[in-house]
Amino acid sequence: MHFASDNTSPVPPQVLEALIEVNHGYAMPYGADPTMTDVRDAIRKAFEAPEAAVYLVATGTAANALALACLCPPWATVYCHPQAHIEEDECAAPEFYTGGAKLTLVGGDDARMDPAALERALAFTARAGVHNVQKGALSITNATEAGAVYAPADVAALAAIARAHGLPVHMDGARFANALVSAGCTPAEMTWKAGVDVLSFGGTKNGLMGVEAVVLFDPARAWEFELRRKRGGHLFSKHRYLSAQMAAYLRDDLWLKLAARANDAAARLSTGIAALEGARLLHPTQANAVFAAWPRAGHVRAQAAGAQYYFWPMDQSLEGPGDAALSARLVCSWCTTDDEIDYFLSLLAD
Predict the structure, then answer these.
(1) Which of 129, 128, 192 is nearest to 163 (CA)?
(2) Which of 8, 99, 116, 255 is the most core-located residue (most Cβ within 10 A)?
(3) DSSP β-ladder status, 134-141 and 76-80
(4) How far is CA 142 from CA 79, 113, 178, 324, in A?
(5) Which CATH architecture has domain 12-254?
(6) Distance between CA atoms of residues 65 and 261, nearest Å
(7) Residue-range domain boundaries for the chain
(8) Per residue in 68-105, pLDDT tens?
């Protein structure tokens, strides 16, 4: 019963097999390996973006921070939701890599940015000219940190506001595959066709050992990204091991199949929890994360049986009245099983 995060899951056998396959002989370093050519071609094809520049890094934090550094100068600000990963979980890496750019927090339900709130934030920015931080970039997280999904029309609405103010748009797609499967659209419709300039295309949270792609739909930004990646210490010499993971991920739509499994598992878990007495969902379950509250007694039983998940917020305790509701985040992965979910639900209902 492992629901702490999707990055706790094992690696699919197809990815391990690809790593073994690439581990023969010699290959040119720093992304000049032939497998990287296959990755670049596959991503360009999937996104209907034949001119896109594609690069690999090992972490989502690096992908986000390096991408934003190419979009936002040090004297400007990145608009993001208060629950965005770049705000809550990246130890000021975006600020570090941009050379000091600020983050301006724009609220909205279910960790989705509200367009009207974005308009207000933009109107307030740089009101005193040179004395203020300037408008820099917009960052959208899809799927959000609350498990919700921006449909292409939602992305387009925010991107249109950003574009009207001269801002480029970044999408944090650590769980992009989960969002895409949920929305039932194409990668192009979710990104550049909706106004996204740069995508952090996640792999680690959807089964990979450790690789993320940065997709720059405007190739004019490519050289700057290359320089920033090298300067920031994220250009791998034995790059073929990153390439092999991403190549296996994209082959035969494995990335979409893994995400669909995780989303289906979360839907089953969400439905089961919602049916329990004294339980309620805190956010809609649209991707692979479930946010819910249920009586403390159920938490005690589940955790005593070895269930792993996070209280949300984390400063809650198993000590106290059994009927008091405690809230939690549960994340399903590509290998979460029905049996695992059903056993967990039986513990909550006991």
Answers:
(1) 192
(2) 255
(3) parallel
(4) 15, 11, 9, 32
(5) 3-Layer(aba) Sandwich (3.40)
(6) 29
(7) 12-254, 257-349
(8) 999 999 999 999 999 999 999 999 999 999 999 999 99
Strand arrangement, sheet containing 102-105: 53-57, 212-216, 198-201, 169-173, 134-141, 76-80, 102-105
* Mean predicted lDDT score pLDDT of the chain: 97
Q: 28-41 burial string, b = 16+ CB within 10 Å, else e?
A: eeebebebbebbbe
Residues whose CB is less than 8 angstroms from the CB of residue 175 and which lie 6 or more positions away in sequence, other chains included: 6, 142, 143, 202, 205, 206, 259, 287, 288, 289
Residues 186 and 48 sit within 8 Å (Cβ to Cβ): yes
Task: Give the H or E element holding residue 169.
Answer: strand 169-173
Q: How many residues does the chain have?
A: 350
SS3 state at 58: coil
pLDDT given for residue 350 in this prediction? 79
CB of 172 closer than 8 Å to CB of 142? yes
Check: CB of residue 234 under 8 Å from CB of residue 66.
yes
Stretch 239-264: mean pLDDT = 98
pLDDT tens digits along 115-143: 999 999 999 999 989 999 999 999 999 99
CATH, domain range 257-349: 3.90.1150.10
The CA distance from 97 to 76, in Å, is 13
Within 25-183, residue ranges assigned H as helices are 34-46, 60-69, 85-88, 93-98, 115-124, 152-164, 176-183
Which among 288, 227, 290 has a CA at the least distance from the CA of 259? Answer: 288
- The percentage of the chain sitting over the pLDDT mark of 70, rounded to a whole number, equals 100
pLDDT tens-digit readout, 309-322? 999 998 988 999 98
